[in-house]
Amino acid sequence: MSATDPFDTRNPPVPARGSPLRPLPKLIFASRWLQLPLYLGLIVAQAIYVWLFWQELYHLLMGTLGNVDSLNHVLDAVTVEGGQRPTKPDETVLMLVVLALIDVVMISNLLIMVIVGGYETFVSRMDLEGHRDQPEWLSHVNASVLKVKLATAIIGISSIHLLKTFINADNYTDRVLIAQTAIHIAFLFSAMAIAYTDKLMNEAAAANTHH
Asked: 131: which DSSP letter?
């Protein structure tokens, strides 16, 4: 058999490369790199969130150890405008500060999804296949999957905010509690609608493939 024999499994034929793009399509396709500064900017935002996290953790630690300035910072951070300021770092104050730290982490996770998933989907492949640290969700990411995961992450962030409000409910009006609950439910239904639409599109694509 010749080296180019299509039935020779030892030397499979090399697939032909597509024809070069014309100048205008090539320019349009290359315009995807204009998104790169956006993702680099989000990396800067990620660094700011890391700095904010360590600042708040530092104040929590020093306030617990008795530092007056850090303690005042912590108490001011959990005080609702128009509400009563806590007088000591009790369990409720600690829980609110920890939830604020979790909120920062979840927003940071959302940033990672947008940066990595968005770059992989809309700009260029990262060639992470086989890498030991490749995120599990990145192996099958596309625009639809990314939208569902982002919607789920937003629901998680909204849940943290709603939990913080319920824990500190005495300092909020009924109108604020109802409004935040309604907003959270709206996020939930939006995510369900996105997931259902994605399911319908996948089923339609599968049906077309079978036909």
From this structure: -
Nearest-angstrom CA–CA distance, 134 and 113: 12
Strands (E), the chain: none
Cβ contacts of 142 within 8 Å, gap of 6 or more: 121
Give the model confidence (pLDDT) of 103-147 as tens digits.
999 899 889 888 888 888 888 887 777 777 777 666 666 677 778
Can you tell me the distance from the alpha carbon of 12 to that of 97, in angstroms, rounded to the nearest whole number?
61
**What does the alpha-carbon distance between residue 169 and residue 173 come to, in Å, rounded to a whole number?**
8
What percent of the chain is modeled with pLDDT above 90? Answer: 21
- In terms of Cα–Cα distance, which of 82, 87, 208 is closest to 74? 87
The domain limits of the chain are 36-125+139-205
User: What span, in angstroms and rounded, lies between the C-alpha atoms of 111 and 109?
Assistant: 5
Cα gap 195→152, rounded to integer Å: 10
* Span 70-87, pLDDT tens digits: 888 888 888 877 667 777
pLDDT band at 202 (very low <50, low <70, confident <90, very high): confident
Q: Do residues 108 and 44 lie in contact, with contact meaning Cβ atoms separated by under 8 Å?
A: no
Q: Are 58 and 129 in contact (CB under 8 A)?
A: no
Token readout for 6 is 């299509």
